Amino acid sequence: MPVVAVIGCQWGDEGKGKIVDLLSEQAQVVARCNGGTNAGHTIVNERGTFRLSLVPSGIFNPQAVSVIGNGVVVDPAVLLEEIDQLEAVGIDMSRLLVSDRAHVIMPYHKLFDGLEEDARAQTGIGDLGTTRRGVGPAYVDRTARTGVRMGELLYEESLLTKLSAIIPAKNAILTKVYGAKPLQLHETYLRLVEWGQHLRKHIMPTELVITRALSENRSILLEGAQAALLDLDFGTYPYVTSSNPTAAGLCIGSGMPPNRLSAVLGVYKAYQTRVGAGPFPTEITGQVADFLRDQGGAGHGEYGTVTGRPRRVGWFDAVAARYVAQLNGLTGVAITRLDALDNFSKITLCTAYKVHDAHLSHIPADLSELDTVEPQYEEHPGWQMDTSKARSWADLPENARLYIERISQLLQTPIAMISVGPHREQTIMVRNPFNSLPQQVGQLVQSLGS
Ligand code: IMP
Ligand code: MG
Q: Does residue 91 have a pLDDT over 70?
């Protein structure tokens, strides 16, 4: 049975939540694999509108088990709030499993995220524009081997011993480096014990759930958070997140053997956005940018789900997009927010970067080089028609089809899905990633061969 990984392919907020929600109807296991409370996805379904940051979208499918994998950093307070919110609308939360190997975002991680950002802002580098949710510091402690894992919340005695070593060390930095207030060991300990008691029934070795699901031929959906251009290794470092939101990262973050992936679906917005600092070659500002920001964002405008910050906006960057497609072995592409472009008379697409009279076919590692690239654009006529009611490839205006075909050609990857609005039914399924046979092949896929 298929194992489908869904990853964001720009700088996040591509509308993965909706795509995953839709595909999870076909999955028996849905696993979130990376990131933490920095992610925020909005899901609109018959039960209401939900903004989740930790619980996988698969929770809405009563046939599926939802896993928060070992690669996720978990803020237990937020997780408990999300569980309450979902239980209140009658969702059975016993199907939520949390890896005992997932790291805890500790109260001090949130403090450090803010203090470190403020300190960076005072330097020549400037701040990174993190979500200040403690995600980066939690991954730092994971790598430093001073992290606390979800499973440890269940062993009160050893937890106290561990905290007795950690808290004084953290306090030394808090007070001596930042002049901040120290943490109380006992208060922190009691909070953790309480979290453990509430979450006990969810915590388990979830990698074994994956192993078992594979041996029973179940269909599995791996849900990525953030996106490939925020990847710690291949993104625009240091303006990246601290996990690997790529297909390989999803395997590590869930315990999925890499050779078991059957499809990797890459989600791209029909244009490009970014929250936080960092390079953005195709960024636009001014009136056109304001217009695009208002048109996008599933009816709410392009503002961050987690922090409410206005998103920076720009044109589709096919150079970055192709780089990501290749690195992740994409087998299909989902284009989202196509409807946000409905009212444009012309649409601009970046097909190459020029740097010192040479063409560059990938995103360079060096930021100063990336800052000097000149995006080479081609213009496409807009369609100036409402696409939000399109339900098939044939329903789309011709200029919209041509634009999408061009993206598919530049990415050398077939289109799988197109989203034209926040609701489930506002989706055109060109090629279902869970089926080997395309549902509606269309000229699109054929055109790739020519
Ligand atoms: P952090 O992940 O909070 O450390 O933030 C690092 C960078 O990643 C910042 O630019 C954030 O705005 C960005 N980021 C983190 N999570 C998301 C997300 O889910 N969507 C969009 N941007 C994100
Ligand atoms: Mg988001």
A: yes
> What is the rounded CA–CA span in Å between residue 87 and residue 82?
8
Q: Which residues surround ligand 2, an ion (CB under 5 A)?
A: 13, 40, 305
**439: exposed, middle or buried (Cβ count in 10 Å: 0-12, 13-18, 19+):** middle
Q: For the chain, what is the radius of gyration of the CA atoms?
A: 22
Pocket residues: Cβ below 6 A from ligand 1? 11-13, 38-39, 128-131, 133, 135-136, 225-226, 230, 239, 241-242, 275-276
Q: Establish whether 198 is a catalytic residue.
A: no
Q: Which residues pair with 283 in a beta bridge?
A: 314
Q: Contact at 8 Å (CB) between 64 and 222?
A: no
**317 counts as catalytic:** no
| Beta-bridge partners for 203 | 98
Q: What is the pLDDT of residues 126-169, one digit of tens each?
A: 999 999 999 999 999 999 999 999 999 999 999 999 999 999 99
Question: Residue 375 phi/psi, 5° resolution?
Answer: -65, 135
- Ligand 2 centroid from CA 173, angstroms: 32
Furthest CA-CA distance within the chain: 67
Nearest to 13 by CA among 300, 285, 251, 412: 300
Structure tokens at 326: 């290749």
Query: What is the residue whose two structure tokens read 């291949």?
Result: 234
Q: What is the separation of C-alpha 293 from the centre of its chain, rounded to a whole number of angstroms?
A: 20
Question: Whose Cα sits closest to atom 9 in ligand 1?
Answer: 130
- Ligand 1 pocket: which of 230, 244, 267 to mutate (most atoms <8 Å of CB)? 230
pLDDT in tens, 26-63: 999 999 999 999 998 878 888 888 889 999 988 999 99
Three-state secondary structure call for residue 112 = helix
Mutate to test the pocket of ligand 1, among 42, 275, 303 (most ligand atoms within 8 A of CB): 275
Ligand 1: which atom is nearest the Cα of residue 130? 5
CA 56–ligand 2 middle distance (angstroms)? 13
CA angle (225 as vertex; 12, 56 as ends), nearest 5? 135
User: Which residue from 131, 133, 234, 269 has its CB within 8 A of the most atoms of ligand 1, so it is best to mutate?
Assistant: 131
- Measured distance CA(271)–CA(13) in Å, rounded: 11
Residues 17, 319: Cα–Cα separation, whole Å: 25
Please, which residues have CB within 8 angstroms of residue 68's CB and are 6 or more apart in sequence? 31, 32, 54, 55, 56, 74, 79, 96, 97, 98, 99, 102, 206
